[in-house]
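ok here's Protein-tyrosine phosphatase, seq below lol
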Amino acid sequence: MVVCTGNVCRSPYIERLLADGLRDLDVEVSSAGTHALTGRPMEPGSARLLQEAGISADGFVARQLTAAMLREVDLVLTATREHRREVAQLEPKALRYVHAVDDFSDLVAAAELQHESFLEPAAASLVAKLAIRAQSARGEVAARLADASGIVDPFRQSDEVFDTMAQQVGAVLPKIVQAAHEVARSR
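and the structure came out like this:
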């Protein structure tokens, strides 16, 4: 699950890109907002960026994040560390599997993915295994400085801010997709 504030810009954009990158794996990707603009479609700026990437924004509807949603997923990726804090406050057990997307990208890029399988329950999903392996890199990866962390919020901003969001996502999402494929190959 991908989480941002309104669930109309960042999280649906990341959701659709991630779903596209993982389309050949058995992974369901969804999104929600901590203060969702429930029922609204994706913002035109995010839809434009997806269209440019050859991905459809059709059918997207913003949803409010609930504790029940968080209990049904193996991994939560948030647009910012503040969203991570909000997720953990809503569902404290999620603290084990919620990460800011850029921090998670750093962890999976550093994790020795092929050597950590002894930590994983045999029945764990691919996504749960990826989260466990990312956790193994904690303490090995320096945290990003606060001003270098988070995906910019382009809501009601110019196309340039949407483009900045896309650049930030483009710098971190490929590492996550690559790591998921590596976990899938090692299963």
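fwiw Residues 114-118 have pLDDT under 50 and may be disordered. kinda neat tbh
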